[in-house]
Each structure stands twice: as C-alpha cells, then as structure tokens.
Amino acid sequence: MTDSIFRLYQATLDCRHDDPSTSRTARLLRSGRGKMAKKLAEEAVEVVIDAMHGGREAVIRESADLIYNLVVLWVATGIRPDDVWKEMDRRERLLGIAEKVPKKLLDDTSRRKIVVLEGRRARKRR
After folding, report:
1. How many Å apart are CA 87 and CA 92, to the nearest integer?
2. Is the dihedral of CA 102, 115, 108, 99 positive or negative?
3. What CA–CA distance (Å, rounded) separates 35 from 10?
4. pLDDT tens track of the chain, all 126 residues?
5. Contact 91/32 with Cβ under 8 angstroms?
6. Which of 23, 82, 76, 36 is nearest to 44 (CA)?
7. pTM (2 decimals)?
8. What is the DSSP string of 65-83?
9. Using CA atoms, how far apart are residues 76 and 59, in angstroms rounded to an integer?
10. Closest CA to 73 of 25, 105, 116
C-alpha cells in the first residue's frame, strides 16, 4: 500500500507543471488549499454515506478518491508520505497500531501519561 501511495505522490509531484486544461491534478493543485481541502472533505463524506448505505464497492471507489485527494493536499502543503509514516510509527510505539492517539498526547510522548491514561480507561470499564 505504501508503494502505491508513494507512486501516487510522485505522479502528483510530476503533474505540478502540467497544463491544467489537460490534467485534473494540475488543475486541482492550482486551485488553492481551500479548494483541495473542500474536495478532500467531500470525498470523506461520500465514503461515510456509502458506508452507511452498505455499498462495499462504492466505499472502495470513494476511498480511492479520498486517498487521491489527500495526496494532492500533501503535495500542496509540502508533506511527504514518509512524514506521515513516521508519525504513524511514533503513534504505534505509544499505543499500538490499532489505537488512535488521544489529542492530549499528540504533542507529549511521555510514557508516564500513557500509563495514567490506560489506568483511567481500566477504571472506567469496571
């Protein structure tokens, strides 16, 4: 998967100087971050709607569109896929790959706070 995203990233970088009349990616890159962010949000909403209606194939198609628009936004903001992978690796070390890092911990990697947080979760479950 990371190879596919890296290839998409490279292809998007290559489109930066293409003619916007012939390249949808070039047109999107020239539209500004606001437009790119709006397209990303639209695709995310489409994934949600299709998921709620149980359309597996539609979710797959819209997810691919979502990833495409995310990568375009990365290019526009100077983010490389490796930047995101490093953050994912950091989070995995903190809580494990299947857990989302709580917003309070995003800037603080203290092990002590994570243990305290996990202790709170355990108490709430009882």
Report:
1. 9
2. negative
3. 21
4. 669 999 999 999 999 999 999 999 999 999 999 999 999 999 999 999 999 998 899 999 999 999 999 999 999 999 999 999 999 898 888 877 766 667 666 655 544 444 444 444 444 444
5. no
6. 36
7. 0.74
8. HHHHHHHHHHHHHT--HHH
9. 25
10. 25
Please give the CATH topology (third level) of the domain spanning 1-79.
Helix Hairpins (1.10.287)
Neighbours of 105 (CB within 10 A): 15
Amino acid at residue number 91:
R
Six token digits for residue 91: 């989070």
Terminal-to-terminal C-alpha distance of the chain: 39
Q: Where in the chain is the domain with CATH 1.10.287.1080?
A: 1-79
- Six token digits for residue 106: 């995003």
Q: Which amino acid is at 65?
A: D
Report whether 33 contacts 21 (CB < 8 A).
no
